[in-house]
Amino acid sequence: MNKRNCILVGAPVDSGKRRRGCQxxxxxxRTAGLAEALTGLGHSASDIGNVVPAxxxxxxxxxxxxxxxxxxxxxxxxxxxxxxxxxxxxFPIFMGGDHSLSLGTVSGMAAHAAQQNRPLFVLWLDxxxxxxxxxxxGSGNLHGTPVAYVTGHxxxxxxxxxxSVVPTKxxxxxxxxxxxxxxxxxxxxxxVTIVDMRAIDEHGIAKPLAAxxxxxxxxxxxxxxxxxxxxxxxxVAPAVGTTVPGGATVREGHLVMELLHDSGLVTSLDLVELNxxxxxxxxxxxVMVDLTASLMGRKVFDRPTRSLTT
Length: 310
Prior knowledge:
Blueprint: E1 5-11, H1 25-31, H2 34-40, E2 44-50, H3 69-89, E3 91-96, H4 102-115, E4 120-125, H5 146-150, E5 171-176, H6 181-189, E6 193-196, H7 197-203, H8 206-218, E7 222-228, H9 250-263, E8 266-272, H10 283-295
Parallel strand pairs: 1-2, 1-3, 3-8, 4-5, 4-7, 5-6, 7-8
Helix pairs in contact: 3-4, 8-9, 9-10
């Protein structure tokens, strides 16, 4: 990966679920030294501050369980525009904020990729598939809906129309270990690559990632990585309100990031679901910053890049 002009975009979204605290995420990343980690690796880093959405327009959800629909729609519009603007200037890193922010960041990056006449691919590093729609969600928490939205599922009629849909075959989920029945049924109908924790336990994390990266490279695609704190095991990353035991280790997380760096394919990044109120003296924020540094080239030793399939 060449030296990048990193655009740090604060996305203090806290409307995607009922437990508050993710609005403090962007400042936690700033305090943990994200910009300094990037510049220490030779990249430039411009923090453009926090996105501010327009006032929400009144909207009545079809599903009465849905929480903060109007607010989340406003964030989606604002972050889609912010993503398209930042992508023109460099490598956007969206500092969140709950995972509903990806409704906007991924749709915006898909629009930008289409303008470059390239397909967008999405790597979803998460305990959850986030494949609900506002209609199927039993909890009504919209942070569980971004992948369904960007892949063009019905049920998002109140959201901004997508100018470019991400095909399900362009999505890879790694670290999955919590999927609701409605999501499971919907995933079986598509072509999403799913690498759950059992698959990782049995076969490791490098080979399935390598296979997906080969697809991205063959298509001359742009790759958006969405990294949820709960991709990691809560024993090492406690600052998330949706803890699911049995997640990736810190070492597995760094391996993913190092392989992504070696590929040179990543063009944008989400850092999501960090709730500093639940953290232990900044422990989770520091881990996430360290993982970002690995993605951007931090290594213990330089070594020749080898084929991931050998």
